[in-house]
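Q: Got a minute? One more chain.
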Amino acid sequence: MDLKAWVREVPDHPISGILFKDVTSVIGHPPAFRAAVDWYTNQVERVNPEILAAIDARGFVFAAPVADRLGIPMVLLRKTGKLPPPVVQVEYSLEYADASNLEARIGAVDAGQRVAVIDDLLATGGTAVAASKLVEELGGTVVAHVFLIELAYLNGRARVLDHDAKCEVLANVVYD
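A: Always. Here it is, folded:
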């Protein structure tokens, strides 16, 4: 299935000049969602992680069924204040907003665990690099970042690979 056909483009969201790629139309169409989850599952299975890390919030939607299918645990990388303590936190910046934070529960990843990070979209790579730093802070090793969508023209892949050249960056729908 061509998942790009199911990605809705929303002009000037969340601010003027941004062409937002909306995945809720993929999530809301069962055949498209199933195709997306199948694709994520195949990519994740190929890199053989021991745990999935899902980025708040759309990453949760895709990672949960993948974790279930593969029988591996999932850790939530949440925005500040959403998890009970103790947590570890990493600050990062977005392309269209002020600084933000990601948190994870201390002990959610064991030392040396191979981790695949799932999110819906790779833009500038700020959130993905923050996720890598958070996983590393917890003691894990990121083996892959898996996205449904990549905005290649923003060079996020290069930023992720600059942080960790050993991990894979995988995307299904690429906008050049």
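A: The radius of gyration is 15 Å.
Q: Perfect, thanks.
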